[in-house]
Amino acid sequence: MVWGLKRSQWVAVLLIPLLSALLLLTPAADLFTDTQRLSALLIMAGMVLFATSALPEFVSALVVLVLAMLLSLAPAEVVFSGLTSTACWLIVSGLVIGIAISETGLAQRVSTRFTRYLESSYARLITGIVLMGVLLGFVMPSSVGRVMLFIPIALAIAENCGFAQGSKGQQGVVLAAAFGCHLPTFAILPANIPNMIMIGSAENIHGWTPLFAEYLLLHFPVLGALKAALLIMVILKLYPDTPVRQAPLHSNGGFSGRELRLLVIMLGTLGFWLTDSIHHTSAAWIGLAAATLLLLPGVGMVSARSFNDKVNVSSILVVAGLLGIASLINYSQISQVVGSRVLDWLPLAPGQDAINFFALSLAAVATGVVATLAGVPATLTPLAEQISQMTGFSLEAVLMTQVFGFSTVVFTYQSVPLMMAMPLAGVPIAHAGRLCLILAALTVLILLPLDYLWWQLLGWI
C-alpha cells in the first residue's frame, strides 16, 4: 500500500477533488448560492465516503455531521435530525425485536420450515428468499415492517445453510431478503410509502386515483418481476456460495411460553401498523412500544445484557449520518433549485414519445437522488399537468412515470428500509450501496427500454 492507504481510500482521495472541480467549475455552479455550493460539496464528499467505505461507516457519518455544524451549514436540529427521526427509532425497535425473535427460537422455528425447501442449491435459496420478500409485499403494506420481520428469519435460514457471519452466503441471503421485500414491491400499489404519497397527492391535486389492478399490470411485469430476476442474478454473481447443512433439522415441538408471548406482541404490533390510518400513531412509536415490552423484566424476553451486547450504536450513527445528508439536501433547498430547472433542461416535445418517456423516467430517478424516494412524488406530482401539456402524454401517464424513479435506488440514503436492514443483519452498509449502484445501472440500461415497450403494448403512450 502506497503511503499506507487502502485502494478504497485512494479512490475517495481521487474522486472527491474530481467531483468537487466538476461542481465548482461547470455552469451548474451558478445555480447555487455560496452556502448551497458548500453544502453540495459536503454532501458529495459524504456520499463518496459511504460508497467507497474509505472510512468506517460510522466515522464517515460523524465527519459529515461535524463538518456541517462547524461550517454552520444548517442548525443542529437539521443536521442531527436523523437521531430524532422515526427511522432512527424504528431501527432501535427493530434491533430489539430481532434479538427477541432470535433468542426465543422463533426465527429458527420459522426458518427450519423453509430451509428444507431452499437448501438444495444456492440459486434456489436466493430465488426463494427474494420471492418470499415479494409475496410479503402483497400482504403487508409496510416495507419497514417487512424488513423488521423478515431479516431475523433470513439470518436463521443462512445459519441453517451453514453460512458463517460475514460470509458471502450470509451477505447474499441478507441482501436478497432486504432488497427482495423492498425494490420489486414498488410495483404493488399500497406496499411502500412513496406509492402512497403519489396516490394521495395525485388525488388531492389532480383528482385521479389509480386502481390496484391497472397499477399492478402497468408496473409489476417489468419493475416487479424482471427487477426481482435482475436482483437474483446480481446477488448470485457478486456473492457466490454453496449451502452446507450443518445438522439435520428437526421440529422442536410446540411453541414455548416465550415464543407465544413474542407472537402475541408481534401480532399486536403488526395489527397497529396495519391500522395506522385509523389511529394515526407513527409506526416508529408502535415499534418502540413493542421493544419496550420486550425489554420489561417478567414480560419481555430481551435481557439488559443482550441489549447492551447486541444493539450496535455505530449502526445508529450511520443511519443518523445518512438521514442528516438527506435533511441537509432539503434544508439547503438544493432539490428545489434543481427541480425548478428540470423542465427547462428536459428535451420534452409532443410526438417524441420515446425521448419524453426516457427523460421523465430519468428525471424522476435524479429527483430521488436529491430529494430521497419519498420526495419524488412530492416534487413531481404538482408539475404533472404542465408536463402533460409539454409532452402530449395523458396526465395519468405522466404521473405513472414517477414509479420508475422512486423504485430505482441509486444510493442507500434514499431508502429508510434498506438503511434499517443492514444494521439489523450486522452487514456493512457498503454492500447495500454497491448493490444499489449496480441495480440502478442495470435498471436504466435494461429495464427502462423494456418498460417503454411494455407501456406501448398496453397503450399508455
Automatic annotation (TrEMBL):
It comes from the Bacteria. PANTHER family: SOLUTE CARRIER FAMILY 13 MEMBER (PTHR10283). Its main location: membrane. It is found in: Membrane. It is a multi-pass membrane protein. InterPro entries: SLC13A/DASS. The keyword Transmembrane helix applies. It comes from Marinobacterium alkalitolerans. This is Anion permease. Keywords: Membrane, Transmembrane, Transmembrane helix. The chain crosses the membrane at residues 38-55, 89-110, 122-141, 147-166, 173-193, 216-239, 260-278, 284-304, 316-334, 354-380, 392-412, 432-455.
